[in-house]
Design a protein that fits this description.
Chains A, B: Pfam families: Pantoate_ligase. Chains A, B: InterPro entries: Cyt_trans-like, Pantoate_ligase, Pantoate_ligase_C, Rossmann-like_a/b/a_fold. Chains A, B: It catalyses: (R)-pantoate + beta-alanine + ATP = (R)-pantothenate + AMP + diphosphate + H(+). Chains A, B: Catalyzes the condensation of pantoate with beta-alanine in an ATP-dependent reaction via a pantoyl-adenylate intermediate. The structure is a homodimer. By secondary structure, chain A is an alpha/beta fold. Chain A has two domains: about 1-175, HUPs (Rossmann fold), CATH 3.40.50.620; about 185-280, 2-Layer Sandwich (Pantoate--beta-alanine Ligase, Chain: A,domain 2), CATH 3.30.1300. Chain A has ten helices and ten strands. The first copy, chain A, has helices spanning about 5-20, 35-45, 75-85, 95-100, 115-120, 125-140, 150-165, 195-200, 200-215, 220-235; strands at about 1-5, 25-30, 50-55, 90, 105-110, 145, 170-175, 240-245, 260-270, 270-280. In chain A, the strands form two sheets. In chain A, strands 1-4-3-2-6-7 form a six-stranded parallel sheet, with helices on both faces. Chain A has a three-stranded antiparallel sheet with strand order 8-9-10, with helices on one face. In chain A, strand 2 (about 25-30), helix 2 and strand 3 (about 50-55) form a beta-alpha-beta unit. The first copy, chain A, starts with a strand and ends with a strand. At the A-B interface, strand 5, helix 6 and helix 7 of A face strand 5, helix 6 and helix 7 of B. Strand 5 (about 105-110) of chain A pairs antiparallel with strand 5 (about 105-110) of chain B.
Chain lengths: ~280, ~280
C-alpha cells in the first residue's frame, strides 16, 4: 500500500493506474478508522477499482468551538487497518498541502446544508463540500463512497455531484454498528463508560420508532416527540434535534410517506453523536 | 466539426480523443462569436489539442433586469466561424440539459466576486463560477482559455481552479480590438451608431492613462478621477466604475506599483461596456 502526502504524487499514481485500465475508487475519511470506514473499502473493492482512501482532518468543516484540535488521529494504526482492508493508496496530505494559500472559494449546497446538522454547525457542510470537491479533483475517481451514518452529508454530496456534473458516481453504504447497536464513529472514543452506555438510547429509540410506524403511527410530530421524551427520560443526553424528513431531499414531512429519514443528534457531555434510520415504502 | 447538444455525447467524444492521445482544450463562450473568441481558439490550437468550444448563454449569471432574453444568439453563423477557426467540437446544450433540476449548488470565490463588476451585478460571478465548474466537469479539459477583456472573470476562474484543485491550466488571452480600438464584445451590437462612436472613449482614456503613468503619475485616485472626467466630458456615457487595482488579486491600490489593472465599466444608454489595461513592472 502506498502512502502519499502530495497531490502531485497522487495524480501521477492515479494516472498510471488508469493507463493500466484500472478504474479509481475514492473513500474520503478523516481517519481514526473503524469498521464503518473499512466497510466502505470493502464496497469499493467489489468493483475491482484501485482504491484510494483519503485521510484528512479538514479544518474548514469545523466550527471555532468544535473539536478540530482534539479530533482523534492515529496514522500508523489507520495504515495497518487500511492495508488489511485492501486499500491501494492512502492520501494523507498536510493542511498546507490542501490549503497552501488563503482559500477564497467555497462550494455550497444551499438549503440542504442549512438544516439538521447544518443548523447547529454553521459552515460545516460548506467545509465538507469544498474539501470533497478538492479531493475529487485531486483523485478524479469513478466512484466515491460515503457512509449513511452521515446521511445528510451523503445527500449533500450527491446533490453537489449532480448539480455540478462531477464525472463520477456517489455510493452510499449502510451504517455499521457496534455489537450493542451504537453506530460506529471516531468520536465514540470521547465518551466516558457511563455516556457510552447511555448513548445506546439512540439506536434503541430509532428501533422503537420503527415499531411505532409498523403499528400504524404516521404523525411525524408524535414520533419525534416520543423519541425526544425517551432520550430525555432515560438518559442525561441533551437532544440537539430529532427530525423526520423526506429521505430524498430532507423536506419536512407532517405525515410519514414514501422514503422517510428519522435523524437525530444528541449531546452526551461535550460529545455530539448522530444516528438515523431510513424507512422505505411508506 | 461536431456539434453536440448532450453532455453524454461530449463525454464520450472527449474520452475517445483522449484514448487516441489527444489533449483537450476548452474555450467557454456565450456565442455570437467575434475575433476575440476566435483568437482564444487560435491559442488553443497551438497546443495541438482537440478544441472544444462551449456555446451556452448561462441564465445563472444574468440578473433579473439584465439582458439574458435579448442576448444575441446565432448558432449557424457561430458554427461557420468556429469551423473556420479550427474548432473540433461545439458543445451547445439547451438550458434544460445544463439545469435539468432546480440547481442548489453554487461555487463562490468570495471577495474577488463582490467588487468591480460584481458590485453592480450581484450574483453574476457566482453564476459564472458555477457554470464554468459544470463545463469543466463535462469536458474535463487540460487547458481552458479566457479573454482578458473580462479580466476579473479570468482572475476569479484562476482562483477557483487553484483553490479547488481543478486538474487543468487556465490561460489568459489578450484583448482583441476593432480597428478603431473598441474592445470586441458580443454586446457591441446593442450600440447605436452614435454610441458606437462615443464608446471609443474607453480605449482612448485607458491609453491616455498609460501615458500619464509613463510621465510619472502614480496616484490611483488622480488617474481614476481623470479617466472619469474624460469619459463624462467627452461623451454621454455614465460611468459605473473606474478602478485601479492590483492585477494579481484586485486589492485596492493608493499608489501604482507592481502589476496594475486599470478597469472600467461605462453605460451607453442601456448597454454596459467594460474595458481594461494591465500595466506591468511599476
Amino acid at each position: 500500500m502506498i502512502i502519499c502526502k502530495l497531490i502531485s504524487e497522487v495524480r501521477q499514481i492515479v494516472k498510471d493506474q488508469r493507463a493500466n485500465g484500472r478504474s479509481i475508487a475514492l473513500v474520503p475519511t478523516m481517519g481514526f478508522l473503524h469498521q464503518g470506514h473499512l466497510t466502505l473499502v470493502e464496497e469499493a473493492k467489489k468493483s475491482g477499482a484501485f482504491v484510494v482512501m483519503s485521510i484528512f482532518v479538514n479544518p474548514l468543516q469545523f466550527g471555532p468551538n468544535e473539536d478540530f484540535a482534539r479530533y482523534p488521529r492515529d496514522l500508523e494504526q489507520d495504515a495497518q487497518k487500511a492495508a488489511g482492508a485492501g486499500v491501494d493508496m492512502i492520501f494523507n496530505p498536510e493542511v498546507d498541502e490542501m490549503y497552501p494559500t488563503r482559500n477564497l472559494t467555497y462550494v455550497e449546497v444551499g438549503e440542504l446544508g442549512d438544516t439538521l446538522c447544518g443548523a447547529s454547525r454553521p459552515g460545516h457542510f460548506r467545509g465538507v463540500t469544498t474539501v470533497v470537491s478538492k479531493l475529487l479533483h485531486c483523485v478524479q475517481p469513478d466512484r466515491a463512497y460515503f457512509g449513511q451514518k452521515d446521511y445528510q452529508q451523503y445527500l449533500i454530496v450527491r446533490q453537489m455531484v449532480q448539480d455540478l456534473n462531477f464525472p463520477l458516481e456517489v455510493i452510499a453504504v449502510p451504517i455499521v454498528r457496534e455489537e450493542d447497536g451504537l453506530a460506529m464513529s471516531s468520536r465514540n472514543v470521547y465518551l466516558t463508560p457511563e455516556q457510552r452506555t447511555e448513548a445506546l438510547v439512540l439506536q434503541r429509540s430509532l428501533t422503537e420508532a420503527e415499531k411505532w410506524v409498523h403499528q400504524g403511527e404516521r404523525s411525524a410530530q408524535v414520533i419525534a416527540e416520543q423519541i425526544k421524551a425517551k432520550i430525555t427520560n432515560e438518559t442525561s443526553g441533551e437532544v440537539d434535534y430529532v427530525e423526520i424528513r423526506s429521505a430524498d431531499d430532507l423536506s419536512a414531512l407532517a405525515t410519514l410517506q414514501g422514503k422517510v429519514l428519522i435523524a437525530l443528534a444528541v449531546r452526551f457531555g461535550s460529545t455530539r453523536l448522530i444516528d438515523n434510520k431510513v424507512l422505505e415504502g411508506l
